[in-house]
Amino acid sequence: MIDGERQLILSGSIHYPRSTPQMWPSLIQKSKEGGLNAIETYVFWNAHEPSRREYDFSGNLDLVRFIKTIQDQGLHAILRIGPYVCAEWNFGGFPVWLHNMPNITLRTNNEVFKNEMQNFTTLIVNMMKDEKLFASQGGPIILAQIENEYGNIMWEYGEDGKAYVNWCAELAQSYNIGVPWIMCQQDDAPEPMINTCNGFYCDQFSPNRKNSPKIWTENWSGWFKGWGDSYPHRPAEDLAFAVGRFFQYGGSLMNYYMYHGGTNFGHTSGGPYITTSYDYDAPLDEYGNLNQPKWGHLKELHEVLISVQKALLNGERRDIDYGNMMSATVYSYQGKSVCFLGNANSSNAFTVEFENTNYTVPAWSVTILPDCFTEAYNTAKVNSQTSIMVKKPNAADDAEEPSNLKWDWKNEDFEEIKYGTVVDSDLTTSELLDQKAVTNDTSDYLWYMTSIVVDEKDAFVGKNVTLQVNTSGHILHAFFNSKHIGSKLAQNGHYDFVFEQDVQLTLGTNQLSLLSATVGLPNYGANFDKRADGILGPVKLIDHSTNNTKDISSNEWIYKVGLQGQKLESYNPQKLNEAEWSSEGLPTNKMFVWYKTTFKSPLGEEPVVVNLLGLGKGEAWVNGKSIGRYWPSYISGKDGCPSVCYYNQTYKAENCRTNCGEPSMRWYHIPREFLNNEENVLVLFEEIGGTPSLVNIGTITVGKVCANAFEGSTLKLSCQGGKVFSEIKFASFGETEGTCGSFRKGRCESANSLSVIEQACLGKESCSIPVTEAFLGPTGCHSEIYRLAVEAVC
Ligand code: GAL
Known about the structure:
It is a single chain. The chain is 16% helix and 31% strand. The strands form nine sheets. Strands 1-2-3-4-5-6-7-9 form an eight-stranded parallel beta barrel, surrounded by four helices. Strands 17, 30, 34, 36, 38 and 40 form a six-stranded antiparallel β-sheet that branches. Helix 7 (236-248) packs parallel to helix 8. The mean pLDDT is 95. Bound molecules: beta-D-galactopyranose.
């Protein structure tokens, strides 16, 4: 209820740290244009409180500015404070220092934890109150969330779990924010908390109390991607179907998770092994471009839903079941009716006679009849354009192309580590420790060093023995007596693994230096925070000829956090010591190398990306800002990408994947906000070896658009971003066959299709075409339904 009137809420998640303040107005505007009236975000505790009681709300962490940007565009906001968020975000949003506090247990009835949580949530609530951002104060925030999906794992915490939920509810209530609080996936949410639903479908969900609104906090618009994965997609038809079903069956508020996924800059991605891109196949792509046809198909759905919202929210509802998963729902309000025809059957279309008219409802689809007669929308009939995005080379006046990018390089300096002569170690103990406990997650990297002294009486001296390292991941690089003896990466989700390599112990002191690297800390599951990472041991030397074993786990271990280059800020243009870098003899396929180059900003407004193909794994910075971890050498499996995407059954990632057998991520987003007008500095830390010679800068733009619109619709074609249509490659209205890129004329077509489209669209940024015989000319086909297929170049 808003201003005394019930309002249907169509919302979308945009996470402010996954984009930049410069992007926010346009992301929100495109959300509004796409038919949303609210934006939802989590609040990211670990980003805001990186060290205890030291806060950061600057740049893309400026939460107040983000909420005000939503307000400026007249949209509502939903604030999910958590502070546990999951979100494929490092450690689920918990600061690692929190985990390292004595006597703490996270997400349960533990005083140390509750005290910290309360401190942070109070800070956020007060910050919102001070800026008058709650709806009760005239601001945009209409709902707030405490905790997140705790109900899914609560049983693991026993009685304390229940006590914790009650405490969360009381805490939330005590803030008196004047807007309702939600808890998602919490069947037993205490009054007056509203339980809400998360998932691919929520039509069968009912809230915890009869009079509570039916709220869907996360309608997964796609899915996230891990290193080594191909691209997951959720087809627009299935997403629209899920929304149609939800509102057919009494929904009040639905939020797309994500509407814009964005980018995991720095080392914010969780996992382990979540990629830097958090594109999510969301309606707005990683860079903020419209992901078509998804954006457009949903926009049309939103318009229809909003046009009938009064009846949906206030009307009398009547459901009719036809069997075979075919149903109708009628909402009657003030003498008018709105109808839904729903077909949840995976394979068959059904024709039903409804109020004396026959309607054919395709498999897995919902038809909306705003007046219970006219079909205004069907979730399986996509009339929106498909945009094919392309990468354009850097269009700066005198941009340097790949072979011309001039690279400088330097080695990561770890001589002292290799030789065991470190003077500024961070810790020495006789234990193998959880990596987080030592690094506080200030770096992905932790060195574990020890020396093994053997005298002439030692049975191991001079022998080939096996070094065995049991690690909990995620990546291990091993050096023995200053030589690299091997590396191992966790694969296929097996983060606990054993590294083995033969070594020869020499008389005297032998130096073992192990570098452990994490790639995103876990963010999900009961007690996810308790999973230890890094080299937990045992670490042993094994003489297989005699079965003799030397367990060196309790040796004296010396720890050193991070890389030397990180400490020196070798990625920061202000701190670059030119004397350290060389332009001669550029190494390739060499581990632990820093590379540096400069480039001009591409002209125009299009989003900028850097293609890191050729490199192994590491991190990239532009003008000192981390654009995230990179790993283009991680190729996804060859199989599992179907040639056609299936949408007509319960979502399964296998039904629609692309990019099999390719790097799971080769293009990395450089927000324009990170760029200077003139020269920009790109720095790479290459961990496993690769070549920068193929690296290039480019922009993302619409290359061509396709459409296959149904008769009776209005086809809107657009190039986006100021470009115009330069060529109509194909246009035919009739019984057209094929798909984008391979459309074919059918048995018959209207003779004018091509010339009419050329006239309407060529030289224009966008055009609008009524898909009718009246506009396109007679087809002479005598079919039931005609379609207009177009392929146009921008
Ligand atoms: C949900 C969680 C979200 C996100 C999503 C998957 O369970 O609440 O934060 O992790 O799964 O993308």
